[in-house]
């Protein structure tokens, strides 16, 4: 067979493949689209008020999958994604897709729960105690109509004390958290793509085990409806009597029913995938090993030279503690997202 003949055959095969690909119909599933916005308001001890947006975007969901395209995000306020990126969700895992970095952060919910619990339990130099936990559940009756649907309103109130030690910083506070939910009746294909995130359970205990367990038990009484609006008010009082307050609102708007293109839920094949579940587990194992090494130091280790207590070292320790406090504040914002992360 001549080279020219082979080339003609190759071109014909390629053309046929392109024709078939072009003719292949997109697969659509019944679902919904809507806009989601998470906003907040913080009041510091001096009474100064600041409004902010944590994250907003447009979601497309079906009974099996979900996607949220982000048009606004503030990482310093707890947002996990970035503007221009998007989340993909199924029943077992979530992916944070960054077109800017051509990267995908992927984690399964079970791996995340186990890894985060182990990491928190093994983190050196950090001690957290949650005590005096009380969680109260109330069914408040009919709420206002939202998105053209009737709603039922619920309230979950959390009260507890926090004692945290990070490096050279000690922080003690009393927390009072009021979460209000406007729940619409369950609809096929209408789901919250991030529902399981907020109900991550500490596997094997941990400081937050009692709080999360009691809160999950209270929230289970709301049934399988969908939170279309949540309002979370957190009042924190430190051991000096100084009080700070934050209010977080999550609301769905512009709800529309219709068929959703399943291709929206397929991640780019050429992006780098990072398994965050595996990395979290590895970090937890490293922290655990480091802690074991520290405990097994010989008795005469106490005679070793003491750490430098110069002003520069003290300043570095202070900065470390401040950064840890900022991270703790960011976690509070995430917790304040209320029903956004409620499992359906």
Topology at a glance:
Elements: H1 3-23, E1 28-43, E2 49-62, E3 66-73, E4 86-89, E5 93-98, E6 103-108, H2 109-122, E7 126-146, E8 149-166, E9 169-184, H3 209-219, E10 226-238, E11 243-261, E12 272-275, H4 276-295, H5 311-335
Parallel strand pairs: 6-12
Antiparallel strand pairs: 1-2, 1-11, 2-3, 3-4, 4-5, 5-6, 7-8, 8-9, 9-10, 10-11
Helix pairs in contact: 2-4
Walk me through this protein's architecture.
It is a single chain. With 344 residues, the protein is an alpha+beta fold. It has one domain. It has 5 helices and 12 strands. Strands 7-8-9-10-11-1-2-3-4-5-6-12 form a 12-stranded mixed sheet. Helix 2 packs parallel to helix 4. The longest helix has 25 residues. The radius of gyration is 25 Å and the shape is globular. The C terminus is likely disordered.
Strand order of the largest sheet: 7-8-9-10-11-1-2-3-4-5-6-12
Shape: globular
Q: Helicity level, as a percent range?
A: 25-40%
Largest sheet: 12 strands, mixed
Return the domain count.
Answer: 1
Average residue-wise pLDDT: 75
Poorly predicted runs of 5 or more residues: 195-204, 301-344
Q: How many β-strand runs?
A: 12
* Class from helix and strand fractions: alpha+beta
Radius of gyration equals 25 Å
* Distance between the ends: 63 Å
Number of helices: 5
Question: How are helices and strands ordered from N to C?
Answer: HEEEEEEHEEEHEEEHH
Strand content: 35-45%
């Amino acid at each position: 067979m001549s080279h020219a003949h082979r080339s003609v055959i190759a071109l014909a095969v390629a053309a046929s493949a392109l024709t078939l690909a072009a003719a292949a119909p997109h697969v659509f599933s019944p679902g919904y689209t809507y806009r989601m916005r998470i906003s907040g308001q913080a009041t510091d001890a001096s009474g100064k008020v600041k409004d902010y947006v944590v994250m907003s975007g447009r979601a497309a969901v079906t009974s099996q999958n979900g996607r949220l395209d982000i048009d606004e995000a503030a990482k310093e306020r707890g947002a996990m994604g970035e503007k221009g990126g998007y989340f993909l969700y199924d029943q077992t895992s979530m992916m944070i897709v960054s077109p800017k970095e051509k990267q995908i952060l992927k984690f399964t919910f079970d791996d995340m729960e186990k890894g985060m619990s182990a990491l928190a339990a093994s983190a050196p130099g950090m001690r957290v105690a949650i005590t005096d936990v009380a969680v109260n559940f109330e069914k408040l009756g009919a709420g206002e109509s939202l998105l053209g649907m009737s709603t039922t309103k619920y309230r979950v109130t959390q009260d507890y004390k926090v004692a945290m030690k990070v490096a050279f910083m000690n922080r003690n506070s009393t927390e009072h958290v009021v979460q209000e939910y406007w729940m619409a009746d369950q609809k096929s294909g209408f789901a919250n793509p991030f529902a399981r995130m907020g109900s991550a359970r500490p596997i094997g205990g941990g400081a937050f085990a009692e709080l999360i367990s009691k809160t999950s038990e209270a929230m289970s009484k709301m049934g399988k409806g969908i939170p279309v609006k949540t309002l979370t008010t957190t009042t924190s009082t430190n051991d000096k009597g100084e009080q700070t307050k934050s209010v977080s609102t999550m609301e769905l708007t512009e709800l529309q029913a219709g068929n959703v293109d399943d291709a929206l839920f397929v991640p780019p094949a050429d992006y780098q995938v990072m398994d965050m579940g595996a990395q979290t587990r590895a970090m937890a194992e490293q922290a655990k090993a480091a802690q074991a090494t520290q405990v097994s130091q010989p008795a005469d280790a106490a005679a070793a030279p003491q750490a430098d207590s110069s002003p520069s070292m003290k300043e570095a320790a202070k900065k470390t503690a401040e950064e840890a406090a900022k991270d703790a504040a960011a976690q509070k914002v995430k917790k304040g997202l209320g029903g956004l992360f409620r499992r359906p």
